[in-house]
Amino acid sequence: MTFNDFNFDDTLLEGLFSMGYKQPTPIQEQAIPVLTNNKDLIACAQTGTGKTAAYLLPVMNHILHAEKRHLNTLIIAPTRELALQIDQQVDGMGYFCGIGSIAIYGGNDGITWEKQKRALKEGVDIVIATPGRLIALLQAGDINFEHLQHLILDEADRMLDMGFFDDIKTIINYLPKKRQTILFSATMPPKMRLLANQILNEPESINIAISKPAAGIVQQAYVVHDKQKEGILKEVLKNPDYQSVIIFSATKENVKALEKSLKAIETNIKAFHSDLEQPEREEIMREFKSKKIRILIGTDILSRGIDVDGISLVVNFDAPGDPEDYILRIGRTARASKAGVAITFVNQRDQGKFSRIEDLMGYEVTKMPIPAELGEGPAYDPEANKKMDGKKPFKGGSGNKGGGNRNHSGGKKHFKPRK
């Protein structure tokens, strides 16, 4: 199948091909026909599968063939970064067909607020918005959704994780009941099913499995005490082959502290968190994409809100709580058929979590030896520690040297990426 098989407008195809699109991905092959037929859709697909184009292309094609142009489509996204990325996609695909969009998000000044209001009043085809700022504009009476045809919730599970369930319901009260509703999510927890049942009408369902990481990702784990994490990380970062690195930590406080500590050995590093002003965040992302920043530290928002090729190393400084979040995090590397490395630090409390990650993938991750100068790590005994999630560490034995590895790497400290 090719994009020509979808019978898109020639100007839309021209923009698509100018952006380097060649063959439809599986989610695009399955979703585009459903959306072209004006069906509601609930789709489970992760970042990096081509989901944005999967919903943008049929929607933009509908706009091009509408009898009269109005504010046609609302896309709700959990973060400013994702909203901006979607807006950039619309700009690229719509370059030759004149479709207009605007990204609406908070954390900016009064000038930006007035610019957003003016753009909405003058007319735009597609609005991409974060929930908080959109509600503020709706309550101010600055948006008329009378002619809205399409509502899209992107990364809906992340929005629910961030506490936006009630906000989404509030926004929907401002929208026409007769519309096409499209819900994309990386995971499908019970609350997501509840939301889907409330806002979608006899939807089609598509599930693109995410339980297997890309084949090009070399996964490693260090079974550690918390005090050993920074020492191992600093040793790992000495490897010059890791030219572009993302480090995930559990909270923004941890992100800030880790940035401060690592700057002792690496100046080309930035922390990415919600306390930064929006222009600062955008500048950091630009510099990271252009390789001016070597190391970026952030929370799970980065696992979904970043689209950068050429990342050679992903480090889970704190093991993720959800197995599918692990897949999303390490999926930032080895994109576009390239190789990459993913390293996870597993403390005693997180051994149960990591075992569930291995269960989801269907194989064990190589446990690496801890450098001798950092001392012994805890034994890797996830069955004994599965009850510890979120509790105080298990008071078991002192553990085996090298972190209790159950599949050893032969003494190598760090894997060097394939050239």
**Secondary structure category:** alpha/beta
Label the overall shape: globular
Order of helices and strands: HHEHEHEHEHEHHEHEEHEHEHEHEHEHEH
CATH superfamily of the largest domain: P-loop containing nucleotide triphosphate hydrolases
Strand fraction band? 5-15%
Write the layout of secondary structure elements.
Layout: H1 10-18, H2 26-36, E1 41-44, H3 51-64, E2 73-76, H4 80-93, E3 101-104, H5 110-122, E4 126-129, H6 131-139, E5 150-153, H7 156-161, H8 165-172, E6 180-185, H9 190-199, E7 204-207, E8 217-223, H10 229-236, E9 245-248, H11 252-262, E10 269-271, H12 278-289, E11 295-298, H13 301-304, E12 313-316, H14 323-330, E13 340-346, H15 351-361, E14 366-367, H16 382-385
Parallel strand pairs: 1-6, 1-7, 2-4, 2-5, 3-4, 5-6, 8-13, 8-14, 9-11, 9-12, 10-11, 12-13
Helix pairs in contact: 2-3, 3-4, 6-8
Kindly describe this structure.
36% of the residues lie in helices and 15% in strands. It has 419 residues and is of the alpha/beta class. The protein folds into two domains: 3-207, Rossmann fold, CATH 3.40.50.300; 217-388, Rossmann fold (3-Layer(aba) Sandwich), CATH 3.40.50.300. The strands form two sheets. It has a seven-stranded parallel beta sheet, sandwiched between helices. Strands 10-11-9-12-13-8-14 form a seven-stranded parallel beta sheet, with helices on both faces. α2 (26-36) runs parallel beside α3, α3 packs across α4 and α6 packs parallel to α8. The protein is globular and about 70 Å long. The two termini are 32 Å apart. The model is unreliable at 390-419 (pLDDT under 50).
